[in-house]
Amino acid sequence: MRNSISAKAMVIYGIVFLFIISLTFWLSYTGTVGKLQKDLKDTNLALLKQVDSKIEGAFRQTEKDLLSMAEGLEFIYFMNNSYSDDAQRYSIHYTLTTRLRDFIANNPNYSSVFAYSHVSGDLMTEETFLKQASTEFNWLAQYLDMPEYFKWLSTQKVWDGQKTEDVITLVRSFPALSSPGFRKGLMAISIQEDELFQMIKTIYEDGHPGHFFILDAEGNVVTHDDKTQLYRNMKSLPYITTILTDSDSGSFNVKLDGVKQSVFYRTSAYTGWKVVSIMPETTVFEPLKVTRNLLLIFAVIMFSLALSALFYVNRWTFKPLDRLAGKMSGMKKGRGQGTESIGLSSLEHIFDEILTDREHLEQHVRDSKPMLKWKIMMELLNGSRSDFHAVYHHLEFQGIRMYPERFLVCTAEISKDGEQLSPRDEALYTYMFCNVTEELIRSEHAGAAIDLGGGRAAVLLSFAEGDPEQNHLRTLVILELILDIMKKQFGLSVTVGVGTCRMDMQEIPRSFDESQKALLYKMIFGKHSVISVDDLQPPDRQDYYKLSRMSEPVMEALRQTDRGKMLAYLSDTFRAAVESNLPPELIRQLCYDLMMKSLQTVSAIGIEPEISMGPLSSIYERIAKCENWKEAEQLVGDILEGLASQIEEKRSQRGKNETIDRMLDYIRTHYQEHDLSLERLASMFHLTPPYISRLFKDHTESNFIDYMIEIRIKAAMELLKDKSIKVNDVSDAVGYANTRSFLRTFKKYTGLTPTEYREIMLKRAASQIV
């Protein structure tokens, strides 16, 4: 009877075990294979995304290089066919040819470059010059009326004066932002088709088992691993039609030449081209075979263990299962006594190790974050990483916010007067400095700070807007506030070297080198000071530079909509230009500069460029047609008066904000205090610093730092009229703890030192008395 009951129990247990193992195997197999299939598809689409990003980055750089190259005066002469005589024509042609050759020599990725003047019909490359080129060679002329400013052409055969090559070409209008009918010509730059394909090939390090190609929006082959397919239109193929009609990325299966193929495709947001990868299904899903075999082996082992448990272990097998179930449900149970089943105990041990390893891995990631942040920042500072799109996700993982351009680097050295800091204290104080710096920077801008060792720190700032000089001045204000906090709260002396503001991420190392160079001058400027690299460079004394500086009061009067002062300053600028005997082309360039600066001024106020000035090409043409400087001055004055009217209309539509009014009153009352900051306003008015910064920008057309600088400098200008007040006392009276910082800011804001300004004011007052 006992054996019969035992046999029945074993049968029941066997059925339950076999059912559970079979169900587990089926669910594991279904879930694992399905997930792996999705992961494999996602991986192939991710590779296409990498290809798209790499091509887009290279194409955008090509567009930037072409725009940069087309800024020279020789292009303007060539495109407009405006030469005073044949000697100038030959000189311009020689200079332009030399520049094109140097450009190709310095950029081996480019195959050829073209300049086509629609005015003269001339075509020039780095290899040849065709006067009034015929239709056979002047293939560029057909794109003169293209609706876009630029266009990427799929693979074509182009003759550059020496040879014919398969190239992908970027065609760009000249001037850069001109519409059809107003263009003077076209610029074009070519990349060899094979160069583009090699760029793609590097993404697939282990090779591509199938076919890889790129199509344009009409189905023409741009590049293909099979070079016999070049110049073919594949739109008639059914699976290509499916790809062309989809504006996004995706994948599907198709049977080609009797073989099942997996098709993956992605649409480029930049060019609209289709990046296509075709691979045999057997290759795509090859990793699934290993997983399937492992699952089958695992199932066989589990069946064997179950049968062993039925005949040899019986009821002792349930103890490890109880413990495993208890752990999975969060219950804590002790281990049982006696011998345990080897198979199931090993499985339990494996799960224990998995849970432990997961905890260790999470802890390791948390502990490694500071080191990863340091590594990324050092790679940015030494130039190992210079592509913003490639490094953006790494910065985001570290919680570091950066803008894609406008970077400035500072190098700080921390010390304590009268004490020799130990390495441990240096690390602690540098950590405090980095935290304070990042908190103040991120209230209005973006950036990060890291410890360089030896009591030194590097600070990388990133700005959303503003020209390099504005951002440099903002940095100096922030640093002065940081130095004041470190001195008052921690008793530390901080000396900071400041580099210049750079537009591209690849120029960060230059700004870093400049900041380190500036820091070397601490023996001259002393500790606990901000040393700008500008302090070490002699100013430029060229006539045109002075004239460019004279335009700043014009822009300020435009911002204030003071038409009288604006036209008076404008008249002084043009009179100085004429008295300096500037040639006509530089006077026109001065007009262009005034237009661009006025465009930046109204854009900062919130007026769109198209609304404020209309088509830029028409303005350039009107300036070019001016016969004398008085006509040019009148034209610029009329445009500035029109912009002033638009600014007044914009401001009349803007409502008042009581909170901002109270903040402005508070700033005007407390600007003399050294510690006045955005954080102090946030605490005073119970708002967050980012919200105050945005509110300030919307209602004052300026950020907090610029507004505070303006209040302080205007107050200093009034105090300087009294010759009995020393410059150091003026600096302290308007809120500057450091006199040298006040001198630098006053010079940048007014173009004069405080002493020079005082002398001018005293002379003006004396002349009025006489």
TrEMBL record:
<protein>
    <submittedName>
        <fullName>AraC-like DNA-binding protein</fullName>
    </submittedName>
</protein>
<dbReference type="InterPro" id="IPR020449">
    <property type="entry name" value="Tscrpt_reg_AraC-type_HTH"/>
</dbReference>
<dbReference type="InterPro" id="IPR018062">
    <property type="entry name" value="HTH_AraC-typ_CS"/>
</dbReference>
<dbReference type="InterPro" id="IPR041522">
    <property type="entry name" value="CdaR_GGDEF"/>
</dbReference>
<keyword id="KW-0472">Membrane</keyword>
<dbReference type="InterPro" id="IPR009057">
    <property type="entry name" value="Homeodomain-like_sf"/>
</dbReference>
<keyword id="KW-0238">DNA-binding</keyword>
<keyword id="KW-1133">Transmembrane helix</keyword>
<dbReference type="Pfam" id="PF17853">
    <property type="entry name" value="GGDEF_2"/>
</dbReference>
<keyword id="KW-0812">Transmembrane</keyword>
<keyword id="KW-0804">Transcription</keyword>
<keyword id="KW-0805">Transcription regulation</keyword>
<feature type="domain" description="HTH araC/xylS-type">
    <location>
        <begin position="661"/>
        <end position="760"/>
    </location>
</feature>
<feature type="transmembrane region" description="Helical">
    <location>
        <begin position="294"/>
        <end position="313"/>
    </location>
</feature>
<feature type="transmembrane region" description="Helical">
    <location>
        <begin position="12"/>
        <end position="29"/>
    </location>
</feature>
<dbReference type="InterPro" id="IPR018060">
    <property type="entry name" value="HTH_AraC"/>
</dbReference>
<dbReference type="Pfam" id="PF02743">
    <property type="entry name" value="dCache_1"/>
</dbReference>
<keyword id="KW-1003">Cell membrane</keyword>
<dbReference type="Pfam" id="PF12833">
    <property type="entry name" value="HTH_18"/>
</dbReference>
<dbReference type="InterPro" id="IPR033479">
    <property type="entry name" value="dCache_1"/>
</dbReference>
